[in-house]
Amino acid sequence: MPSTMGARTGCLLGRIRLGFGGDAGIAVPENLSAVTRQGDGTLWLAADELAALDVLRPEGPRAHAYHGHRRIPIASALGLEEDCEIDIEGLDLEGGALWVVGSHSAKRKKPKRKGKQDLARLAEIETDLSRFVLTRIPLENGSLQLDRRAHLSAHDEGAASLIDLLEGDEHLDPFLPREGRVPIPGKDNGFDVEGLAVHDDCVLIGLRGPVLRGWAFVVELAVEPQEGGALSPRRRRKRVYRKHALDLDGLGVRELMIHGDDVLVVAGPTMTLDGAHRVFRWRRDTGRDDTLVQQGDALEPLFDLPMQVGRDRAEGACTFDWFDEGDSMLVVYDAPSEMRRVGEDSVLADVFAL
User: Fold this and answer.
1) Are residues 31 and 49 in contact, defined by beta-carbon separation less than 8 angstroms?
2) I need a labelling partner for 185 at 20 to 30 A (CA). Which of 16, 21, 174, 220 fits?
3) DSSP letter, residue 114
4) How many CA atoms lie within 13 A of 27 on its CB side?
5) Is the pTM of this model over 0.90?
6) CA-based end-to-end distance of the chain
């Protein structure tokens, strides 16, 4: 089991200014949920209540400011309604493509501080199929080729989604939002995707929930695009996925990223509360082929991210070049505090040493 006796606050190298003033009428996103970085420094970002991607470019080499904002709607290319909520919770760039994953979670309506009406709202649970998306979008010369996208989605009739693939799983099935049952909402320790890391044909999908007796889960798939726009899971030894059980000190997965031969895991509370956000190094054993791999001994706690009550919740992260290539981690935040805002169109992201 990982020990947190040596857990410390991360070494903040500096901050990056993210300017969203490029497109007229675009406000600074209040709920950034995912970020990934291209080789030329371009940042791709997502906010969990939008069906669009935000693109920012650095002002120069080793730049500490990003601008030239563009917002790219993706809902229609995925066969979804323009005003839908994909609830994007993970982005990664690999194999000449941008990968996008939705939360795949059910949601309970938020209270509005209206007494009995709030109790009634708490009984209302919604399942939105637009959240059930894992998508690969080819990238050429910095532009998304949306007409060539391939995805694993419950929205396409007759197609399989991640939820379908996990049906019957001995640990996860009771928590899956499926037809014919009242689902457990993601923020109530239900099934909730947060975090995506792709390396070659290996797709790692982090689960914020469920956390079972302190164990969090990462689902590993191998998929390939097919004609007609589908992502097809590839079987390995008669199975299409394997699970990794991670002892993250009782926390759920909030972000994943490839770092050399390892995977960095940002862990945080499963429920909507203020608590530790801890970064782990996961030395993944790619030679093993178990369907369930308990990785307690392969996890090293690195540091804790700073937190504020009700504000600055770490949501998205990616590797970054501060002094040297891949020597740091860029973190973006949900509910940014006033101290993190710069003017009307910019917000600050943090860079921590690795």
Assistant:
1) yes
2) 220
3) -
4) 4
5) yes
6) 21
Separation of alpha carbons 255 and 36, rounded Å: 11
**Cα–Cα distance list, 107 to 70, 182, 334 (Å):** 29, 11, 18
Cα(306)–Cα(277) distance, rounded to whole angstroms? 8
Domains in the chain: boundaries: 14-353
How far lies 254's CA from each of 105, 144, 330, in Å?
Answer: 14, 26, 14
Q: How many CB atoms lie within 10 A of CB 114?
A: 10
Cα-Cα-Cα-Cα dihedral sign, residues 123, 129, 132, 135: negative
CATH class of 14-353: mainly beta
Strand, coil or helix: what is 133? strand
Q: Please write down the HEC assignment for all residues of 288-330.
A: CCCCEEECHHHEEEEEEECCECCECEEEEEEEECCCCCCCEEE
Cα-to-chain-centroid distance, residue 43? 15
Backbone angles phi, psi at 291, to 5 degrees: -80, -20
182-240 pLDDT per residue, tens: 789 898 999 999 999 999 989 999 999 999 999 999 999 988 888 777 788 888 767 88
210: tokens are 């469920």
Residue found by looking up tokens 């509360």 in the block: 273
Residue written as token pair 């689960």 = 207
